[in-house]
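Design request, tokens follow.
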């Protein structure tokens, strides 16, 4: 099943009702469509910050760390396709060093986190192809 706007609204409403100890009754019907959004309207971001950055980023926020073969991730991202997956977006993107790409001969400095290697880039491209999302860097 595809994850749609109504599913997102349902999740947000259910979470708000749970947080306030109220009962929420939600009726979803496709009998009368008020509006629709173009395919690809949805988008999401994976940044370059490491999970060790504390509560701001947390686990699975970094494109450099996240398990791109995770069945849960694959299922959610495939459902969002043809969404746009934005890589980076914070100041961390300015710190990325490209390693193993044509014209980038420098190795990743020892202990430096923000290195996007050619094999990781290949894995990201394969992930995008497998899930149907488009990449924005």
């Amino acid at each position: 099943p595809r994850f749609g706007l109504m599913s997102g609204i349902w999740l947000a409403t259910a979470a708000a009702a749970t947080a306030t100890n109220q009962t929420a009754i939600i009726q979803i019907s496709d009998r009368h469509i008020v509006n629709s959004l173009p395919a690809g309207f949805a988008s999401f971001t994976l940044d370059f910050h490491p999970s060790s950055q504390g509560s701001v980023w947390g686990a699975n926020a970094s494109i450099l760390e996240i398990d791109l073969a995770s069945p849960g991730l694959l299922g959610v991202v495939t459902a969002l396709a043809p969404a746009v997956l934005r890589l980076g977006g914070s100041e961390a993107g300015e710190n990325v060093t490209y390693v193993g790409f044509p014209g980038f001969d420098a190795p990743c400095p020892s202990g430096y986190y923000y290195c996007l290697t050619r094999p990781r880039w290949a894995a990201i491209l394969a992930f995008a192809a497998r899930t149907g999302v488009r990449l924005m860097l």
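Comment from the thread starter after seeing the answer: thanks! Helices lie at 5-19, 71-80, 118-131.
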